[in-house]
Amino acid sequence: MKNLNETAARTAAFLLQVKAVKLNNENPFTWASGRKSPIYCDNRITLSYPEIRTFIRQRYVDIINEYFGDADVIAGVATGGIAQGALVAQELGKPFVYVRSEAKSHGLTNQIEGEIHEGQTVVVIEDLVSTGKSSLIAVNALREKGCIVKGMVAIFTYGLAVADKNFADADVELHTITNYDTLVQVAKEEDYVSESDMHSLAEWRKNPEKWSDDRM
Asked: Whole-number mean pLDDT of the chain?
């Protein structure tokens, strides 16, 4: 398997190159929760770049093979993990399903789309992890179906303490291709951010709620 540090740095460079990750301390981004952040990550942009898309797919596969071994099914978390998960399932020759944040209110009222059965082992594919809340909703849905979730793989994590706690409490093993610390370091080395920006990014990571409240 490739050196993870090298892989994380190259992935971070790709994300910055195609502007999948945007950094802005002066005009912070507003997340769905209403919180302010100096960083915004949209990994779906990588799907538009075949070379990067293929690189990321293979890193997902590397991590699955290294940490989880064989699994019966690959499951993507809607919506960001659907395309990534389908690519991974295709590469591994495995069935694919995806999991909604909640069951549909019409039709078959499915939360899990695709064929999956009690007792099957599953690796869950996510595009990014912030607090982990939406990712773990998918895990819970699969477990309620009677599946055995071997773990989750994502492209990127913000590395927030609340996410670490949520995954630990849920007893879910998480691996990511790259992470916040690597991204910020690569951004600094490639002159995407200044030294003062680095300080602000570190302060946000240390206490996102306070950082956000100070700017609202």
From this structure: 92
| Residue 212 in domain | no
- Residue 75: give the domain boundaries: 4-195
Beta bridge partners of 122: 73, 149
Query: pLDDT value at position 33?
Result: 74
Does residue 71 sit within a domain?
yes
Q: Which amino acid is at 198?
A: M
**DSSP code of residue 36:** E
Dihedral pair phi/psi, residue 9, rounded to 5°: -65, -40
* CATH code: domain of residue 118: 3.40.50.2020
- 140-186 residue pLDDT tens: 999 999 999 999 999 999 999 999 999 999 999 999 999 999 999 99
Q: Nearest to residue 31, comparing CAs of 102, 127, 130, 126?
A: 130
108: CB partners within 8 A, 6+ apart: none
How many domains does the structure of the chain reveal? 1
Would you say residue 52 has pLDDT above 50?
yes
- Residue 207 inside a domain? The answer is no
Q: Half-sphere exposure of residue 202, counting CA atoms within 13 Å on the CB side?
A: 9
Does some domain include residue 183?
Answer: yes
DSSP 71-112: -SEEEEETTHHHHHHHHHHHHHT--EEEE-SS--SSTT--SE
